[in-house]
Amino acid sequence: MFKYSIDTLISEKKIHEKVKGLAREIDGDFEGEEILLIGLLRGSVIFLSDLARELKTEATIDFMVVSSYGNKMESSRDVKILKDLEEDIKGRNVIIVEDIIDTGNTLQKVQQILQTREPKNIKICTLLDKPERREVEISVDYTGFQIPDEFVVGYGIDFAQKHRTLPYIGIVKKEEE
Ligand code: IMP
Ligand code: MG
């Protein structure tokens, strides 16, 4: 393991303002309706729990675990469901809540799988987006922040399972020995 430090990229305050803004956007789009928030474990859990508490729209929460092959060698990166939803999504307003969209492969596959279950609609809400890294086209409905191609941690996002509990988003900076 190399030595590294974590430089703040997005402060706790900025995150909370943005989360409130996203909640207002979602409320505006779903007036008088109910939504189902689907979090992809584990990265989305902190974002989802803050977002859910800002929403005025009636919301149900469910979670999924999908395998992600971080290995960029694979061209058609297959995504498998390791833990499926408890809820039946047929005819419902689904919002997939994600921590960060990188290549877009994970969300594209999840969206395809969920689409076969005939929800009323599926929207995507991500806290962070690295547009430079995109490999597949995916339409994102609610984006918190677009960030540069840097490896980030905090607010649910990990580096080898560490740093998820940081209240801010930081960039992992490799340090010279
Ligand atoms: P995608 O399929 O390439 O879009 O993968 C997105 C997933 O990769 C995210 O949900 C994260 O779990 C992980 N990921 C992408 N970028 C980062 C990062 O900068 N830090 C930590 N995890 C990341
Ligand atoms: Mg993730």
Question: Can you give me a brief rundown of this structure?
Answer:
This protein is of the alpha/beta class and 177 residues long.
Task: Describe it.
It is a single chain. The chain is of the alpha/beta class. Helix content is 22%, strand content 32%. It contains three helices and nine strands; from the N terminus they run βαβαβββαββββ. The protein has helices at 12-29, 45-54, 105-115; strands at 4-10, 34-40, 58-66, 81-83, 93-101, 121-129, 142-146, 152-153, 169-174. The protein has a six-stranded mixed β-sheet, sandwiched between helices. Strands 1-9-8 form a three-stranded antiparallel β-sheet. Helix 1 packs across helix 2 (45-54). It starts with a strand and ends with a strand. The model has no long low-confidence stretch (mean pLDDT 94). Bound molecules: inosinic acid (IMP) and magnesium ion. Residues 40, 43, 99 line the site of magnesium ion.
